[in-house]
Amino acid sequence: MNDNNIIHVAAGKGRTVWLQNCLKQLLPQLNLPSTDYQTWFDSVIEVMEHRGLTQPTQQKDYLSDVRNAIRVIDPKHPALEVVDFDTSTWIQINNRAGDRLGARTTKFIDNPDAIVKLATTLLGSYQWSEIAAGLAVVTGRRSTEVIKTARFEYKTKYSVIFTGALKRGDEPVECVFEIPTLCEAQLVIEAIANLRSQLGQEIQSLSKRQVSSRYGRAVATKCDRYFDELVPPREDQDNLYTHLFRAVYATIASYWYCPPTVPEIEFRAAIQGHYQIIDEQDPKLRRSIAAGRNYFDYRISDGQGNIDGRLGIKLALPDVEILEQFQPAVFQANQLSSKLLTHINTTLPQSNQPTTQPNQPQIM
After folding, report:
1. Alpha-carbon 108 to chain mean position
2. pTM value surpassing 0.85
3. Cα separation, 74 vs 128, whole angstroms
4. Measuring CA to CA, how many Å separate 190 from each of 144, 153, 159, 323?
5. Each residue of 302-336: pLDDT tens digit?
6. How many CB atoms lie within 10 A of CB 45?
7. What is the largest CA-CA distance in the chain?
8. Which helix or strand (DSSP H or E) is residue 94 part of?
9. Alpha-carbon torsion 250, 293, 240, 160, what sign?
């Protein structure tokens, strides 16, 4: 790939036409010996400010695009050490995000079974947008994933192995993990095959950004249409789709499938793909709970105005299995409980045992 092609591909990381044009103009300068990276970064910020993006909170997503564009040129480009906000700015951005989260109120889900039953019905629809809406609910995956990138492999009756997660950056190892399905896994696999059959080969030639732009709104509209009476809206969202495929899915999945001995925040991190992959030499998935706070504003109601705090209520049902990555921890917890119970039984006085000596008649 020649330099012009690399610049073209790198500029494509921009989420808007104006940013792509800016990158096409500025990226070639990064390989000039005379370029001062701080001055280059300042020019990028000036372009943003000229477009009314004056605050770091407004600039941060575009900055991520710029850094991703630089990584296309060189994953370890020295400009990456300069083209970034300083630590104090990121702290301010994160604090503001935390303040918004803290201002949210808990939303109650009164009837999770009704939500899942409706979503499962949509899986059998003849309209691709309804199938995608149903898949968003029962798998917790984004519309672009279920339409283009997701691959589901049967694992158990109520779980699949998922690959094709978005927003993974430029990791050297593909993220592959098991997720629970809120309906039978085979229905999910059949539904996604039907969805892509309806959409045809066109989606293969579209970029992920194009898929999101072209198809995302239709899926969001179906979510609003079918689930508005079952899922209360969040204060900071104008449609149901985003929290149906993240917060609502995670809440119901935890209520049904999270082992009580596993911290719920760890379970949610696992099923929503909040992982970090270290490098090629250490490709293990490391759960990250940093993003989990965004998805805790939905809770299952107990019908009395309080939270039903139970976890894993369906784990005792036939064919429902604990996710494989949590099985060792659950086994250890059960072993510990068993040893503790044995210890208690062997150390406490046996008050119900007869106190007479052997071979002595009992007084009646």
Report:
1. 20
2. no
3. 39
4. 18, 11, 14, 21
5. 988 899 999 999 999 989 999 998 998 777 766 66
6. 18
7. 107
8. helix 87-103
9. negative
Asked if residue 253 lies in contact with residue 245, where contact means CB atoms within 8 angstroms, the answer is no
Supply 85's token pair.
Answer: 């906000």
CB of 84 within 8 A of CB of 63?
yes
Residues 166-211: tens digit of each pLDDT: 755 445 456 788 999 999 999 999 999 999 999 988 888 888 778 8
Look up residue 301 and give its DSSP letter: B
- Rounded Cα distance between 254 and 246, Å, is 12
CA distance 96 to 67: 22
Contact 340, 334 (CB under 8 A): no
Backbone phi, psi, residue 66, to 5°: -60, -45
- Give me 71's structure tokens: 């990584």
> Among residues 71, 26, 68, which one has the least CA distance to residue 47?
26
| Separation CA 180–CA 326 (nearest Å) | 12
CA 241/CA 211 separation, integer angstroms:
16
Token digits for 296?
A: 């805790």
Would you state the pLDDT for residue 257?
Answer: 97
Report the distance separating Cα 338 and Cα 344, nearest Å: 10
